[in-house]
């Protein structure tokens, strides 16, 4: 039985009652599964490298491609959330992207693999739908917490994927398949899971607590959809400040996930197993750290308003930048781990705070704002990826440069007035023509 057709004012993570909590759980689960499709190939790259004869530069291009495709996809998906609704958008995204995930094993060349990696990268746009859907299901008093918990639990999929996919691969090898066949068969598993979940998402969620967009349109044609929402979002400087902020936190998170194990292995002569465990610790902090950011942001917002949230975000980014620079200068593995855990806390809290601000930028363009800001995370990852690909600087130097860049972004965010209450809305006469 549905408890209410309005956004919830309380997040009870143990409840599945009502469309709001059912959607909350299904959307973080969907995001979790999307990570399996998105990064399922990453822990199998050693086998794939041998099978396809890939060079270091080609692997670098593949890593960049996996996050570059998501930049455009997140902006487009955000627009679709505003105009088509999150229920249909998420179901379509999972259904369509399950195809390249299941069929990537058909390729036998670098060029083919690169194209499939680009196609699979589109599924990274799932984050935008998750944040949109929780934004409309929860009241402004609690939306930062809801967004942060859903995003953090979904991000856990990245860490779990690194553990589970090698086990699936090993299962196929144990069944008698050669490694060059086992990795191809292993990718069918996440593909099938995505396809099944696409149906479940369509069946058991709604676009808003009051109903789906098409239902609301019958009652009030202007109640659900917003045409020209991408232009609305792009005209607001606060959107681009958050774009930079998310690039400085989530963008660096993705980069660190890709490079951490190798960094510990090469700089501190650890075993591969220990390097993997230390790198995994960074990812597992998503279990609580991002949620803490959302919770603190909601509390600060109630007391100090949006200006307080903006200052909180700037402070967290500044501490993250300092922490990364200190990590790069660590002379021992103990100091490196301590500084990593410290900057990871600030980074993941900043992720949560960013999306505690997003829903308040413009109520008529939540999807487009979320899409642009989410794309910022991937732009940050791409730019950082080029630093680590460079042969002229060391990994430690790259981390120092990143720390300085994050501090600069923190200064920009501190100067932005997020308490601006006026919203840029399309003129009445342009409602029918703003969307191409």
UniProtKB/TrEMBL annotation:
Membrane topology: Multi-pass membrane protein
Major place of residence: membrane
UniProt keyword list: Cell membrane, Membrane, Nitrate assimilation, Transmembrane, Transmembrane helix, Transport
Top-rank lineage group of the source organism: Bacteria
Domain Major facilitator superfamily (MFS) profile span(s) in chain numbering: 23-422
Cellular component annotations (GO), alphabetically ordered: plasma membrane
MF term (GO), any: nitrate transmembrane transporter activity
Gene Ontology terms: biological process: nitrate assimilation
Pfam families in the cross-refs: MFS_1
Cellular compartment(s): Cell membrane; Membrane
CDD domains: MFS_NRT2_like
InterPro entries: MFS (IPR011701), MFS_dom (IPR020846), MFS_trans_sf (IPR036259), NO3_transporter (IPR044772), NO3_transporter_NarK/NarU-like (IPR004737), Sugar_transporter_CS (IPR005829)
Listed transmembrane segments: 26-47, 59-77, 89-108, 114-132, 153-177, 183-202, 240-265, 271-289, 310-328, 334-358, 365-386, 398-418
Family statement drawn from the similarity comment of this UniProt entry: Belongs to the major facilitator superfamily. Nitrate/nitrite porter (TC 2.A.1.8) family.
Name of the molecule in the record: Nitrate/nitrite transporter
């Amino acid at each position: 039985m549905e408890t209410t057709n309005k956004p919830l004012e309380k997040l009870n993570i143990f409840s599945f009652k009502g469309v709001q909590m059912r959607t909350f759980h299904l959307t973080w689960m969907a995001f979790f599964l999307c990570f399996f499709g998105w990064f399922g190939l990453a822990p199998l790259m050693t086998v794939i490298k041998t099978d396809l004869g890939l060079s270091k530069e080609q692997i670098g291009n593949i890593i960049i491609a996996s996050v570059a495709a998501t930049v455009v996809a997140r902006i487009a998906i955000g627009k679709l959330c505003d105009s088509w609704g999150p229920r249909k958008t998420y179901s379509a995204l999972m259904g369509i992207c399950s195809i390249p995930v299941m069929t990537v094993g058909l390729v036998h060349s670098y060029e083919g693999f690169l194209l499939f990696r680009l196609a699979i990268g589109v599924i990274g746009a799932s984050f935008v739908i998750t944040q949109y859907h929780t934004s409309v299901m929860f009241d402004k008093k609690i939306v930062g917490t809801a967004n942060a918990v859903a995003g953090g639990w979904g991000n856990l999929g990245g860490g779990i994927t690194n553990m589970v996919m090698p086990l699936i691969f090993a299962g196929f090898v144990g069944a008698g398949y050669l490694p060059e066949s086992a990795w191809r068969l292993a990718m069918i598993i996440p593909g099938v899971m995505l396809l099944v979940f696409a149906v479940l998402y369509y069946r058991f969620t709604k676009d808003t607590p009051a109903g789906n967009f098409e239902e609301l349109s019958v009652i009030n044609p202007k109640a659900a959809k917003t045409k020209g929402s991408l232009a609305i979002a792009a005209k607001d400087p606060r959107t681009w400040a958050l774009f930079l902020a998310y690039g400085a936190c989530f963008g660096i998170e993705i980069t660190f996930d890709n490079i951490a194990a190798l960094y510990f292995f090469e700089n501190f002569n650890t075993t591969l197993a220990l390097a993997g465990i230390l790198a995994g610790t960074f990812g597992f902090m998503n279990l609580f750290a991002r949620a803490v950011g959302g919770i603190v942001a909601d509390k600060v917002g109630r007391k100090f308003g949006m200006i307080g949230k903006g200052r909180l975000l700037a402070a967290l980014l500044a501490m993250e930048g300092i922490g990364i620079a200190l990590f790069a200068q660590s002379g021992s593995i103990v100091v490196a781990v301590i500084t990593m855990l410290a900057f990871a806390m600030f980074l993941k809290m900043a992720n949560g705070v960013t999306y505690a601000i997003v829903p308040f930028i413009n109520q008529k363009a939540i999807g487009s704002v979320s899409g642009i800001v989410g794309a910022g995370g991937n732009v940050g990852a791409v730019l950082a990826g080029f630093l680590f690909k460079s042969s002229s600087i060391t990994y430690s130097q790259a981390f120092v440069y990143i720390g300085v860049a994050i501090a600069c972004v923190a200064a920009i965010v501190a100067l932005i007035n997020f308490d601006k209450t006026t919203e840029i809305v399309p003129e009445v006469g342009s409602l029918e023509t703003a969307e191409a």
